[in-house]
Automatic annotation (TrEMBL):
Record's compositionally biased regions (Polar residues): 870-884
PANTHER family to which the protein is assigned, alphabetical: TRAF-LIKE FAMILY PROTEIN
Organism: Juglans regia
UniProt-annotated stretches for the region Disordered: 1-41, 870-905, 914-933, 944-966
Gene3D superfamilies: Apoptosis, Tumor Necrosis Factor Receptor Associated Protein 2, Chain A (2.60.210.10)
PROSITE patterns: MATH
Protein name: Uncharacterized protein LOC108992213 isoform X3
Lineage: Eukaryota, Viridiplantae, Streptophyta, Embryophyta, Tracheophyta
Domain annotation MATH: ranges: 75-205, 244-381, 420-556, 588-712
Family matches, as SMART domains: MATH
InterPro entries: FANCD2 (IPR029448), MATH/TRAF_dom (IPR002083), TRAF-like (IPR008974)
A Pfam family recorded for this sequence: FancD2
Length: 1113
């Protein structure tokens, strides 16, 4: 049906449960229902009002008869018989008046529909008048009614509609313009016409017997309850006065409406509260299977003659059901919120509780809430006295808005006005509000300002007068931004906001905090929980509270942006042979981010950053960030590190980034890099000088718009070391032996089953590593996908992950344990348990590009095994965050930042400074979400919108992550040393040339000296033989000295001389070093016999030839 009534809207069949924190009620101001559905439309025809002053008798040219069946003083059924109904010429008919509850009632019918009806519909209305005459303007009454056109042939086909309404001198008629199609009624076969042309129209009417009382806080009684029941008192007063008061509503015939409130609701007269008119509504709801009395406070303005639809007020209120039994307790519930005259602004028109109290408690004969069929409802309220001002401004942009465009600066400024503005909000009687909250023990209460609109977004300030912590210490202030258009759930906007508590004595002493955040449906409010201390706020001399008034302000700048994600379907990367285990072919995708008011944010980017919304690529959420450093534009890609994201998933992402040249696409600047979403999260690409980018003719800035593009070239799940634990059973831990020779032939460690091998193969392949068998099926090898071989960042991330994983001796053993890999070309199991059985560590070392880094790692573990029991680490591992190491394309990874104060450790490298969150000038922490109370006390969790700065892990420095002993390395150190020696013995010494080689770590000679000094005697010969492999070339002279010192020890075994001379002859040293070695070797001849003597002589001649001292030899 067409809904043409301005004040009558469809009701909800059920209302959502409301908690004590005020949530909007689902029920609207007026309601209707048919017998089974209470969502029918109701209409009041304007034409009906024209007839209000017509004849008090029935009329319109039809013969009619009215009978009234009274069911009590306030209830009646009217039966109106209309003859000659199909042939009536008159536009309208009205019945004779009949009295119900002291009011005059009559029915109006338009056989061919009124001016608002759809063609072919009958209109029917109920009209109620005050019998004292139309001159009395101060009356109203609440009625619940049902109108029906009776089917005399079959009563089940009777057409009826139910509604309720508060009638008054301004709103005397209520009903439906499109009650039913006239063709149905006029059809002689349908059963509605009897005696060939007569229709029976009925009305069941219930009138509420009520009285009200309204008192302001100054105890001045506005209106008292009338002694008679003819008229309930109507509250009327200047709205600006009623900031706090109490309204009481007494209903004397509640049980008459007991059935009605199951589908509809009863409503009190209105009373003034601030700018709004409020009223109490009562209805019944089913909550979790139990029946409850529901009670709400409503503000929807039904008086459509009032033009001020933006009226609103923030109200703290208590709703009560009074107990009429002496000495019994009343029922109270408190809530608060902003009411509005209509819901266009997004504010509430109804606040309350669906589960206010159980119906059994309300109706209980002994409870005292319903006595003599009388119930008393009341509400006391406090409305804040507030003033607000909003001005849109383009002034901050200056004359640059026309830069790069043909339009003048004037049109540019107008265009930008909509994305920038300042809102000021003044709250009076602030101390009284604080005292009221304290008295009522209300915690966590927030006041929300009126909304103001910037860039098509609704914004408002949220203030917590007593903060969000217990005990109250700080005032909390937030900015809320929502999507006024409600277009989609995934809306997002980037906002720079500066919030202030204004110092009214000295404005320069105002407390101001600034932040940049991305707002969305999930993160719609950002600000500070500890904005200003309550002590300083309420200090009379501080200047924040003047004449009991506090002033807040918000300067808001919204990024005008567009973004689009698209697949580059014609540029699929081919899967090579190594990638044959990956089922799906990766499709390249492209994310374009267009910033249309770039210059407005230029100053912000000098100290902070802007970032796009997240986009999805290959299972991970990514976003672009942009900032300026040393007058250079810097761009980075980072993954979502917020609390809600899946931090367990780790992806390697290779991408290329561009600043698009909009005039000449061929001049677009591209740079390539990669990230690992969990291990190393962002790398910064340095592009051009900002001044070059802003040149009018350069083509990068056109009409204040800059376009950034990120192409995702490749993305795959990243290797997780914890997954390796499936390859070692718990039994293996007890089966270890310290003898390397025994280890090789050990039968105690079970071979990896076919299933486990497949898991391992799959795990490695997802990370770009592939287990292959080459020519010999019993000799597995690990190879790297080509794409990773050239990615220093990927290799660095892998090695960092390996170091972090190996923080526990048990894990080290698992990787060093010889495995019996099954698998052959025919798929049958083939096990082998001789020296060729590799450990997982050996498989990884088979990747030449990882070999040196893993050797360094194993050397560190040996040092750890040889450390005293305090477990401290020696030098060489302490410079973990020394400095970033940019790779060839300018990418570097930011340092770990101190997000508490926004300071960065990388003072000499400002290009990495701002990958922490934006902070204000006062050095406060970043803005957080007001609703995120569960994050308090958990600073390690990321708050939405904050980029996470991982530890520095670029290619040049990733290996500097120390192995810190969380627990003491156990007595099994000897076993570990044996395993490591056995693993290193299998290595060939040559490192291939030409592949990307991570930088060797320094101080390897110092570490090998410590290991040789502390290692068990039976391992020393093997360790000495490994020295040329373990020490990098620049430290060979140091290594030579270390080896000779081993032989000069008083307890040195003569047998050690053979491996020492063998190792020395493999080192590369200068002639000075060889000379020193030669003369020290002469001392060893005197105490050498047999084979060591032969070896010593042989070595002396080699050393002499290296330093031209053959005659001495």
């Amino acid at each position: 049906m067409k809904q043409s009534s301005p004040e009558a809207v469809s009701s909800s069949s059920s209302a959502p449960a409301l908690s004590d924190h005020s949530q909007p009620s689902a029920l609207s101001s007026s309601s209707s229902s048919s017998s089974s559905d209470k969502a029918s439309s109701i209409s009041t025809a304007a034409a009906a009002e024209d007839l209000a002053v017509g004849s008090r008798d029935g009329g319109g040219g039809a013969h009619e008869c009215v009978t009234v069946e009274r069911l009590g003083e306030f209830s009646a059924v009217c039966k109106w018989t209309v003859h000659n109904f199909p042939r009536i010429k008159a536009r309208a008919l009205w019945s004779k008046y009949f009295e119900v509850g002291g009011y005059d009632c009559r029915l109006l019918v338009y056989p061919k529909g009124d001016s608002q009806a759809l063609p072919g519909y009958i209109s029917i209305y109920l009209q109620i008048m005050d019998p004292r005459g139309t001159s009395s303007s101060k009356w109203d009454c609440f009625a619940s009614y049902r109108l029906a056109i009776v089917n005399v042939a079959d009563d089940s086909k009777t057409i009826h509609r139910d509604s309720w309404h508060r009638f008054s001198s301004k709103k005397k008629s209520h009903g439906w313009c499109d009650f039913t199609p006239s063709s149905t009624v006029f059809d002689s076969k349908s059963g509605f016409l009897f005696n060939s042309d007569t229709v029976l129209i009925t009305a069941d009417i219930l009138i509420l017997n009520e009285s009200v009382n309204f008192t302001r806080d100054n105890n001045e009684v506005q209106s008292s309850s009338a002694s008679s029941t003819i008229s309930s008192s109507v509250v009327a007063s200047p709205v600006s006065d009623a900031l706090s008061g109490k309204f009481t509503w007494k209903v004397r015939n509640f049980s008459l409406f007991k059935e009605m409130i199951k589908t509809q609701k009863i409503m009190s007269p209105v009373f003034p509260a601030g700018e709004c008119n409020l009223r109490i509504s009562v209805y019944q709801s089913s909550v979790n299977g139990a029946e409850y009395l529901s009670m709400c406070l409503e503000s929807k303005d039904t008086d459509k003659t009032v033009i001020l639809s933006d009226r609103s007020c923030w109200c703290l209120f208590r709703m009560s059901v009074l107990n009429q039994k002496p000495g019994s307790n009343h029922m109270h519930r408190d809530s608060y919120g902003r009411f509005a005259a209509d819901n266009k602004s997004g504010d509430n028109t109804s606040l309350g509780w669906n589960d206010y109290m159980k119906m059994s408690d309300f109706f209980g004969p002994e409870t005292g809430f319903l006595v003599d069929d009388t119930a008393v409802f009341s509400t006391s309220f406090h409305v804040i006295k507030e003033f607000s001002n909003f001005s849109k401004s383009g002034g901050l942009i200056g004359g640059r808005s026309g830069s790069g465009s043909g339009s003048g600066s004037g049109s540019g400024a107008r265009k930008l006005d909509g994305h920038m503005g300042k809102f000021t909000w003044k709250i009076e009687n602030f101390t009284r509000l604080k005292d009221l909250l304290k008295k009522r023990k209300i915690t966590g209460l927030c006041i929300k300002s009126r909304r103001f609109q910037i860039g098509n977004r609704d914004c408002r300030l949220i203030v917590y007068p007593r903060g969000q912590s217990q005990p109250p210490c700080h005032l909390s202030v937030f900015l809320e931004v929502t999507d006024s258009r409600n277009t989609s759930n995934d809306w997002s906007c980037f906002v720079s906001h500066r919030l202030s508590v204004v110092n009214q004595k000295m404005e320069e002493k105002s407390v101001t905090k600034e932040s940049q955040n991305r707002y969305s449906k999930a993160a719609k409010d950002w600000g500070w929980r500890e904005f200003v201390t309550l002590t300083s706020l309420f200090d009379q001399d501080s200047g924040f509270l003047v004449q009991d008034t506090v002033v807040f302000s918000a300067e808001v700048l919204i990024l005008k942006e567009m973004s689009i994600m698209q697949d580059i379907s014609d540029q699929e990367t081919e899967s090579n042979n190594a990638g044959s285990h990956i089922d799906t072919v990766w499709k390249r995708s492209s994310f374009t981010w267009k910033v249309e008011n770039f210059l407005s944010f230029k100053e912000i980017m000098e100290t902070r950053k802007i970032f796009s919304k997240f986009f999805q690529a290959g299972g991970c959420e990514l976003r672009i960030g942009v900032y300026e450093s040393f007058e250079t534009i810097c761009i980075y890609l980072e993954s979502d590190q917020s609390v809600g994201s899946d931090l367990d998933k780790n992806f390697w992402v290779r991408y290329r980034m561009a600043v698009v040249n909009q005039k000449n696409p061929a001049k677009t600047v591209w740079k390539e890099s990669s990230i690992c979403t969990k291990t190393w999260n962002n790398s910064v690409l340095q592009f051009m000088k900002v001044s070059d980018m802003l040149e009018v003719d350069a083509g990068f800035l056109v009409r204040d718009t800059v376009v950034f593009v990120c192409e995702i070239l490749d993305c795959c799940p990243w290797f997780e070391f914890s997954d390796l634990e499936v390859f070692a059973s718990d039994d293996d831990q007890d089966a270890l032996t310290t003898d390397p020779d025994e280890l090789v032939d050990s039968e105690d460690s079970e071979g990896i089953s076919g299933d486990e091998e497949d898991i391992f193969r799959n795990l490695l392949s997802r990370a770009g590593f592939h287990l292959t068998y080459g020519d010999n099926p019993s000799q597995p090898q690990v190879t790297l996908q080509e794409k990773l071989l050239m990615d220093a960042g990927a290799i660095a991330g892998f090695l960092t992950g390996l170091r972090v994983y190996l923080d526990d001796p048990a894990k080290v053993k698992r990787l060093l344990l010889p495995t019996k890999l099954s698998g052959s070309n025919d798929g049958k199991k083939a096990t082998k348990s001789d020296e060729s059985s590799p450990s997982l560590m050996n498989l990884l070392m088979g990747v030449k590009v990882l070999q040196q880094a893993i050797i360094d790692l194993l050397l560190d573990i040996m040092v750890e095994c040889c450390q005293p029991s305090d477990g401290s680490s020696i030098g060489g591992s302490t410079d973990a965050n020394s400095k970033p190491s940019p790779d060839e394309n300018g990418a570097a990874t930011p340092l770990e930042s101190d997000r508490e104060n926004g300071a960065s450790e990388s003072v000499p490298f400002p290009v990495y400074e701002r990958l922490d969150s934006g902070v204000d000038e006062g050095g406060s922490a970043s803005a957080v979400q007001s609703s995120d109370m569960n994050l308090l006390g958990r600073p390690e969790k990321a708050l939405p919108g904050q980029p996470i700065c991982p530890p520095e892990t670029s290619a040049g420095a990733s290996e500097h992550v120390p192995i810190h002993s969380k627990t003491k390395w156990p007595e099994q150190s000897e076993e570990l040393l044996g395993l490591i020696v056995n693993s290193l013995r299998a290595l060939d010494g040559a490192v291939p040339q030409g592949c990307l080689e991570p930088r060797r770590r320094p101080q390897s000679a110092q570490k090998i000296a410590l290991v040789l000094d502390k290692a068990p005697k039976h391992l020393q010969a093997d360790l000495v033989a490994l020295v040329p492999k373990l020490v990098e070339q620049s430290e060979h002279p140091l290594a030579a000295c270390v080896l000779l010192e081993q032989l000069q020890k008083p307890d040195a075994e003569p047998a050690l001389r053979i491996p020492v001379f063998g190792a020395l002859s493999q080192l590369e040293c200068g002639s000075e070093v060889w000379e020193r070695v030669l003369f020290q070797s002469f001392d060893l001849l005197t105490c050498s016999n047999d084979e060591p003597l032969v070896t010593a002589i042989d070595f002396i001649f080699k050393a002499a030839s290296q330093c031209q001292h053959l005659p001495e030899a």
